Amino acid sequence: MGPISPHIGNLSFLRVLNLRNNSFNQELPQEVGRLHRLEVLALDRNSIGGEILSNISGCSKLTYLHIGHNLLVGEIPAAIGSLLKLKTLIFYNNTLNGSIPHSLGNLSSLEMISLPQNKFSGVIPETLGQLENLDFLSVS
Predict the structure, then answer these.
(1) By CB count within 10 A, which of 2, 43, 58, 78 is most buried?
(2) How far, in Å, CA of 64 to CA of 87, rounded?
């Protein structure tokens, strides 16, 4: 048990960060947003709290983002909509709230969005209807 070290931001050549099924807790360090070459971020099944990093857009090569089954709160930052290579977005089973950002409609490569077991409100953005590659959407 314990936090993910902020020194993780020093691993500048990292392409895959898979820390799933552990006991990491506290907030995700902002330094993760400095991993500019990161393609896969898998942090599911931990006890990570706090909000989704607002600087996650610094990981511009991400294709896979899975932070499901944690203790995340707050809204999905609109900056997620700038991750143009993203194919898989999974945030299920957290305590996220607010509305699903319209900026997700910018992610033309997106194939999967899994957001169930959160506390979203509002409507599903019409912009998601533009995602021609999207073949899985779960928001229950």
Answers:
(1) 43
(2) 6
The pLDDT assigned to 1 comes to: 79
Say how far apart CA 64 and CA 93 lie, in whole Å: 17
pLDDT in tens, 57-84: 999 999 999 999 999 999 999 999 999 9
Decide if pLDDT at 140 tops 90.
no
Record the tokens describing residue 77, joined without a space: 């930052």
State the pLDDT at residue 86.
Answer: 98
Sign of torsion, CA 53 131 140 22? negative
| Burial class of 85 by CB neighbour count within 10 A (0 to 12, 13 to 18, 19+) | middle
> DSSP secondary structure string, 73-102?
EEPPPGGGGG-TT--EEE--SSEEEEPPPG
- Tell me if 101 sits within 8 A of 78, measured CB to CB: yes
Around Cβ 12, how many Cβ atoms within 10 Å?
A: 10
Pick from 70, 61, 94: which is nearest to 20 by CA?
Answer: 70
Cα torsion 23, 40, 97, 30: sign? positive
